[in-house]
Design brief:
The chain is mostly beta strands and 93 residues long. The protein has one domain (9-75). Helix content is 0%, strand content 57%. The chain is built from no helices and 6 strands. It has strands at 9-19, 22-28, 37-46, 55-63, 68-73, 83-92. Strand 4 and strand 5 (68-73) form a beta hairpin.
Length: 93
Amino acid sequence: MYRAPKAGRSFLYRCYVNTSKGPDHFLTRDPNCEGQIKDGPLGYVADSQAANGGLKTIRRYYNGSKANHFTRAGDEGVPSGYSLEGPQGFVPL
């Protein structure tokens, strides 16, 4: 994660929603937290992969039965019980 703004970077926010299955914290690039409660700022992510491929993709996953989001960097595959929602940006290795 980057701490400073720069061309080609977007801000990542930590958000919160209270579901019927309990609280869920999630990460998003949406400054309005997808209509949920803004929990706090995290930092910046690159909008595209570096020319040398030196960044890891961060991806967000969702488990509907748990009403829970999960974000991680790398290519470990989809966590058990979760479905891929999509990439959120790129971070240094």
